[in-house]
Known about the structure:
Blueprint: H1 3-7, E1 12-13, H2 14-21, H3 25-33, E2 40-41, E3 47-49, H4 51-65, H5 70-85, H6 94-122
Keywords: DNA-binding, Repressor, Transcription, Transcription regulation
Domain HTH merR-type: 11-79
InterPro entries: DNA-bd_dom_put_sf, MerR-type_HTH_dom, MerR_fam
Amino acid sequence: MSPEDRRTMPLLPLSMVMQLTELTARQIRYYEEHNLIEPVRSEGNRRMFTLDDVDSLLEIRELLDEGINMAGIKKVFAMKSNCVTNSNIATISYAKFRSILRDEIQQVITVQKTSLRQGDLSG
Length: 123
């Protein structure tokens, strides 16, 4: 079994994912409703999560902590998905992608602070 197969194998119940991610069941269901994760349902209709799902939830939590709203998170996930599925785009590492995203967020924050300061000076 390849490492990728292991990452996509639904192994973890909701209770374990809650402990690993420090998210509530409601938060996890909310992200599922927004198609940010897609847990598999067991025969008893219980959600079973993959390691990739846990990584996505941790990334969502981190992006929220950085001040990005749900619309922004959806765009980030869409960009990631497009980078993976579009073979015409140069492949970059996940770490590089995160670095680029952090730089862009920092630029937006800096511009917002600058414009707020300029507004205070002109008033």
